[in-house]
Specification:
Elements lengths: L5 H23 L2 E11 L3 E23 L8 E5 L5 E11 H4 L7 E10 L4 E3 L3 E4 L8 E5 L2 E5 L4 H22 L7 E6 L2 H7 L7 E6 L4 E5 L7 H18 L10 H11 L5 H13 L16 H22 L1 H12 L4 H9 L3 H11 L9 H10 L11 E3 L13 E6 L16 E2 L11 H32 L3
Parallel strand pairs: 9-10, 10-12
Antiparallel strand pairs: 1-2, 1-15, 2-3, 2-4, 2-5, 5-6, 5-7, 8-9, 11-12, 11-14, 13-14
Helix pairs in contact: 1-13, 3-5, 3-9, 5-6, 6-8, 7-8, 8-9, 9-10
């Protein structure tokens, strides 16, 4: 009977085991996902749904989700759903906009699920996406260049005028202020201020427009009978969005209010003669506030606030005409590095805030004696400076969230004025959006078991081969 080496016998046994292991591991457990979708219930929130089954009890289900929001931290969040372990689970979870702040129309949201079962196997579904929108309305939309505008009352000509207004405003910002922009912008137009305020969930009753700079989105209320409102409000909000995006930083650097609002007012076009004359009258009477006092906000009183907006526009106009648009862009870039406004002005223009204030007033034929800095500081402290000034104030919405997407967008709101009241839009049920079919779960357990068994076979084969060679050589020795 021929001699069969021990190593060959053991190798054959291990190979048979390797073939059988995958089938056994795959039979132990597998997870199937039969439902994976998100329902948009704008402006209330988002509902996520997951249905999964397994041969072993499902122990944990975690939702991961996020957007492309501009932030210093990763723009994603996760929440672990609470349920009793079972082989079949049907779960849902709601992201409430009243707590987190809305995710505005036009934003793309992604999500995926992480599932573990009793065998400690983990599955992660493929990432899926959906674009947030107000599903109650039947929208029309037009896109030109970077700008997409959507509206639901008015004809195509109306929408085309809005698109052209936005595109022209972006072109002027680049030419006149040196503010080149390259990211897509989504603009949603509601046909009344009431409809806009309802969509925003929480807003002031006078709000006519909001720029969600972190999301590259704008919401604007433009009644059809007041369509000219968009000619000023849309460039204004676009400027806020662009400036906030270009000066975004994680070092705490912020632009003074007079510069933020001056840039936005400048983007609307030439200041009306009556507005300009009001600033000149205040200069002549010696009652015009200093730029230092306008660094942290404007007055809560409408007349004084409007004067400050016009004054700020005239200062920016002076900077552009005297030093050119590139100097203005250099100023913004310098502030973004973390320098104070005085440091940035000095570096770019060799003038601090008081120096600029004096140079601007001198160009109009007025003298300026800078106040003591301590007095200016006291003036700034005692001036009413609500975050929401009357024309396009900056809103810093924040909320303490648990298990929700961190939403702290920088907003700017446009004064709606006193429009003719119009009826709120008819609310229709929100349809369920079911994205692409759920992919087959990854990470089958038999694959890992097979790899482990293969490594064992290779190691044992090498060891036994060495032993077999030694035995063979010993058997060949004479006597």
């Amino acid at each position: 009977m021929p001699h069969i080496p021990l190593t060959r016998i053991l190798l054959a046994i291990l190979l048979v085991s390797l073939i059988l292991v995958p089938g056994r591991a795959s039979a132990q457990t597998s997870i199937e996902v039969s439902r994976n979708e998100v329902q948009i219930d704008f402006p209330t929130g988002l509902h996520f749904y997951i249905s999964a089954s397994s041969q072993a009890d499902i122990q944990t289900v975690t939702l991961h989700y996020g957007t492309d929001r501009q932030t210093c931290q990763p723009g994603q969040a996760l929440t672990e759903l609470q349920f009793n372990p079972a082989k079949q689970v049907d779960l849902d979870w709601e992201l409430e906009f009243v707590l987190s702040g809305i995710i505005p129309p036009g934003v793309e949201l992604w999500w995926q699920w992480e599932i573990t079962d009793a065998s400690m196997q983990k599955w992660i579904t493929d990432r899926q996406t959906v674009r947030i929108n107000d599903q109650r309305q039947k929208w029309q939309s037009l896109t030109e260049g970077l700008v997409t505008v959507q509206w639901y009352e008015g004809d195509q000509a109306y929408g085309s005028r809005l698109v052209q207004t936005a595109v022209s405003a972006l072109d002027r910002m680049q030419q006149e202020q040196g503010l080149a922009y390259s990211n897509p912008i989504w603009i949603t137009i509601y046909p009344s201020y009431e409809a806009l305020q309802e969509a925003m969930v929480t807003s002031n009753e006078w709000t006519g427009g909001v720029a969600y700079s972190d999301y590259n989105a704008i919401l604007l209320g433009v009644p059809l009978e007041q369509a000219d409102f968009a000619n000023s409000a849309l460039p204004h909000e676009l400027n806020h969005l662009v400036v906030n995006r270009l000066t975004f930083n994680c070092v705490g650097a912020r632009l003074p209010t007079w510069l933020v609002e001056g840039l936005a007012m400048f983007s609307e076009g030439p200041l009306p003669d009556a507005s300009r004359q009001g600033v000149l009258d205040a200069l002549g009477a010696g009652t015009l506030p200093t730029l230092q006092s306008l660094a942290a906000g404007f007055s809560a009183y409408s007349d004084q606030a409007n004067l400050s907006y016009n004054q700020s526009e005239m200062v920016v106009d002076y900077l552009v005409k005297t030093y050119g648009p590139q100097g203005l862009r250099n100023l913004l870039d310098t502030i973004t590095t973390g320098k104070t406004i005085d440091e940035a002005l000095t570096q770019v223009y060799t003038l601090d805030t008081d120096g600029l204030d004096g140079a601007w007033r001198k160009s109009l034929g007025f003298t300026f004696t800078p106040p003591e800095r301590a007095v200016a500081q006291a003036e700034s402290t005692t001036t009413p400076v609500p975050t929401l000034a009357l024309w396009t104030p900056a809103i810093h919405a924040s909320a303490t969230l648990t298990e929700t997407l961190p939403v702290t967008p920088t907003l700017t709101a446009t004064l709606a004025g006193t429009p003719t009241k119009t009826a709120s839009p008819t609310i229709r049920p929100s349809p369920t959006i079911t994205p692409t079919p759920v992919p087959t779960p990854r990470g089958a357990p038999w694959l890992w078991g097979g790899l482990a068994a293969l490594l064992v076979v290779v190691g044992v084969t090498i060891v036994l081969a060495v032993i077999d060679v030694a035995i063979f050589r010993r058997s060949r020795r004479p006597g």
